[in-house]
# Entry
Amino acid sequence: MADPATSTPFDLVILGAGSGGYACALRAAQLGLLVALVEEAEIGGTCLHRGCIPTKALLHAAELADGARAGAAHGVRTTFEGIDTEAMHARKDKIVAQLYRGLTGLVGQADIEVVAGRGRLVDAQTVSVETADGARTVTGRTVVVATGSYARTLPGIEVGPRIMTSEQAMDLAEIPGRVAVLGGGVIGVEFASMLRSFGSEVTIIEALDRLVAGEEAASSQQLTRAFKKRGITTRTSAKVASVDTDEDRAIVHLEDGDSLEVDLVLVAVGRGPRSEGIGLEEAGVATDRGFVPTDERLRTNVEGVRAVGDLVPGPQLAHRGFAHGIFVAEDIAGLDPTPVDDLTIPKVTYCDPEIASVGLSSEAAKSSGVDVETHAYPLGGNGRSLIRGTSGSVTLVREKDGPVLGVHIVGLGASELISEAQLVVGWEAHPEDITPFVHAHPTQSEALGEAAMLASGRPLHAHA
Ligand code: NAI
# Structure
């Protein structure tokens, strides 16, 4: 293994050991490349420690809370008595710790030099790292910038005991009585859903005219309706002017003059790129509003410097980071891999009901000039969905007489259903290619088969 204290160059120096960075390191090491992985905190990054994994553990607890409430309707005697936050966080932290042990084990067994400390680019081949033992210089033929993203706040709205981002809100010691969620994007609706299940009164304040604006409009409508039924208030086309806080409460002032008194404000207005203070400017790496633009092979404007994950404009998703990291490792090793296509990356929002999608929305397809048809199969006609007590739909967006361009799913279970949909979109299948494949009955996945039958003009359990 090369010693970073010496001038021996690595094949790859990776700055940041989150999803993009560690995936790149593991794949590169598998391919026999000499790798240095620079990380100032813990391997695993936002996804493992402050994002995907801990929040989904909490959302699972939320699902169980709702299950306890719903028991009677199924003839099961259960009551929801409240949330034991200590026990809930202990389980969440145990899951994170177990995955962390596994990941550090994988990295430890691979031939990867982990350099602990804050790193910054000095030039296109050199990263200087402030380690506990002083500054170390690590050089590589390629430098991969994988520093990820951070939770944005709004001007004048500072994190404190009554104002939090998702980072602090995932460790709440008490369930707040009243919550205002600023931003109805992915994080906003996941936390709104979770806190409602825990018993909070929740109001979402969203600047745009609908929730989860990156999704098919029909998915936003269904979510808003389902949230209303669950007692979550949604205020769209509403902007926050300021927030006042004292020891007991927070007052959210809206631009239209209205105000709202709550116990907690959750700010979920997007995630910004972590690109400041890491030497990008010094190394001549161009940025655009802090993001690092790349070509499809994830090369920046500076020869030998690549970027992966949330720093690269596009969907900020851990699985996109993994794919980016693997791509760069294989590209450097000369395997000529296929570039990562954002369009075939599935997106999942883990609120109740879940939302999952892949490919184009009908709006995006139309605005790119395609003649599209939309076919929606309601989960109300799907036995397993009814049994599980969920409603929603599977919507296919297809080019007229052509392939499926996008699939949009709403309902409990959408997160797992989307994987078949992603193959359909990725392989440019026509609905007629899907119908010969018999789906197991009774499953929720049948809904995708039914949507394809509907789109082929031969519906079984639906009206044409
Ligand atoms: P987002 O971009 O999804 O949503 C932010 C929302 O805040 C937007 O709808 C925006 O219109 C609204 N907003 C902005 N300023 C506002 C203001 N002043 N007043 C009211 N509303 C305002 O960002 P979010 O939810 O913070 O998530 C960040 C990223 O993390 C996203 O790209 C998301 O994909 C990713 N993520 C993915 C998850 C998943 O895959 N399940 C889970 C959590 C995050």
Summary: The chain has three domains: 8-51+88-151+272-342, 163-269, 353-455.
